[in-house]
C-alpha cells in the first residue's frame, strides 16, 4: 500500500466535467433498484442527468413540497461511490443520504436500521482519502443521525461495521475476527463513503438494513431477495425525511 499523500491530485473531476447541470444540494444514494421503483410510483421522478461508470447511471430528482432532492442507484463498491461523490460535489452537492443492504453479523440488527459508528477499512478506497494511522474510519455524523431517527421514532442500533471489497471472500476466520471487534454487519461502501466525506468536507448520513446473514456457522440468504415493496417504500420515506432534517 502506498503511503497516504495529503496533496492535490493530478486528475480532478472538474478537469473532465464541464456541464452546467443544476443539481439539488442533497442526493440519496442507494444500491437497490427497488428504491427507485418506489420513488417512481410515489413521486413520478424525473431524470435530470446520466453519470457513467462503465454503465449508465441515471440521476433523478424527487420534487417535494418545499425542496427537491436527487436520487441515484449505484453499482456496488467503494471506488464507484467515491467517484460519483466527487462528481456530485463539483456540481454543488454537499449532502448525501446513503441507504442499502448489509450482511448481518449480529441478531441485534433484526428490525433495526443500522447506524455506523466506525467502519473497518477492509477495502482500498479509504486509504487514498484518509491517513493510515487506524484501521477504523470514524463516522462523524452518527450522533446527528441518531438524534434524527430518535425524533422520528425509528427503531435503530448504533455500532461498528465491516467494509469489505470482496463479498465472495468473507471467510469464517474473517467473520469471527469482525464479530470479536463487535461489528454489527458487513457492507461494501461505508469506509469509502466516510473517507471521501471527511476529506472533501461533505455531510453524509449512512443507514443500513440487514438482508443476508453471517450470524451463524453458515451463510443464510435471509431476505436478500425477498424484501417486500412495502419495505422499500418505508425506507425510502425514511431516507427522504433524513435528507430533509
Protein topology:
Elements: H1 13-16, E1 26-30, H2 33-43, E2 46-53, E3 55-63, E4 68-73, H3 78-89, E5 95-104, E6 113-122, E7 136-138, H4 142-151, E8 156-164, H5 172-180, E9 183-187, H6 190-200, E10 203-213, H7 229-244
Parallel strand pairs: 1-4, 1-5, 5-10, 6-8, 8-9
Antiparallel strand pairs: 2-3, 3-4, 5-9, 6-7
Please characterize this protein's 3D structure.
The chain is an alpha/beta fold. Helices cover 30% and strands 31% of the residues. It has seven helices and ten strands. It has helices at residues 13-16, 33-43, 78-89, 142-151, 172-180, 190-200, 229-244; strands at 26-30, 46-53, 55-63, 68-73, 95-104, 113-122, 136-138, 156-164, 183-187, 203-213. Strands 1, 2, 3, 4, 5, 6, 7, 8, 9 and 10 form a ten-stranded mixed β-sheet that branches. Helix 2 crosses helix 7 (229-244) and helix 3 runs parallel beside helix 6. The longest helix has 16 residues, at 229-244. The chain is globular. 40% of the residues are buried.
Class from secondary-structure proportions: alpha/beta
Global Rg = 17 Å
Q: Oligomer, anyone?
A: single chain
Element pattern in H and E: HEHEEEHEEEHEHEHEH
**Count of DSSP strands:** 10
Q: In whole angstroms, how far apart are the ends?
A: 39 Å
Q: What is the 3D shape?
A: globular
Strand content: 25-35%
From the structure above, extract its key features:
globular, alpha/beta, 245 residues, 30% helix
Amino acid at each position: 500500500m502506498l503511503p497516504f499523500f495529503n496533496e492535490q491530485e493530478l486528475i480532478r473531476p472538474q478537469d473532465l466535467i464541464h456541464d452546467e447541470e443544476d443539481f439539488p444540494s442533497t442526493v440519496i444514494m442507494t444500491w437497490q433498484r427497488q428504491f427507485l421503483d418506489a420513488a417512481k410510483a410515489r413521486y413520478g421522478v424525473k431524470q435530470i442527468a446520466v453519470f457513467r461508470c462503465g454503465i449508465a447511471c441515471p440521476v433523478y430528482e424527487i420534487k417535494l413540497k418545499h425542496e427537491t432532492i436527487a436520487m441515484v442507484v449505484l453499482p456496488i463498491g467503494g471506488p464507484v461511490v467515491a467517484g460519483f461523490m466527487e462528481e456530485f460535489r463539483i456540481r454543488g452537492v454537499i449532502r448525501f443520504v446513503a441507504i442499502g443492504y448489509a450482511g448481518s453479523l449480529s441478531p441485534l440488527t433484526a428490525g433495526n436500521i443500522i447506524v455506523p459508528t466506525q467502519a473497518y477499512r477492509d477495502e482500498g478506497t479509504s486509504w487514498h482519502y484518509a491517513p493510515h494511522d487506524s484501521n477504523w474510519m470514524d463516522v462523524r455524523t452518527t450522533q446527528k443521525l441518531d438524534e434524527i431517527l430518535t425524533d422520528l421514532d425509528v427503531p435503530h442500533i448504533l455500532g461498528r461495521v465491516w467494509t469489505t471489497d470482496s463479498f465472495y471472500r468473507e471467510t469464517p476466520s474473517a467473520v469471527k475476527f469482525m464479530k470479536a471487534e463487535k461489528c454489527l454487519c458487513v457492507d461494501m461502501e461505508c469506509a469509502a463513503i466516510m473517507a471521501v466525506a471527511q476529506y472533501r468536507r461533505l455531510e453524509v448520513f449512512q443507514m443500513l438494513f440487514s438482508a443476508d446473514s453471517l450470524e451463524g456457522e453458515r451463510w443464510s440468504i435471509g431476505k436478500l431477495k425477498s424484501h417486500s415493496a412495502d419495505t422499500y417504500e418505508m425506507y425510502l420515506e425514511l431516507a427522504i425525511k433524513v435528507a430533509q432534517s
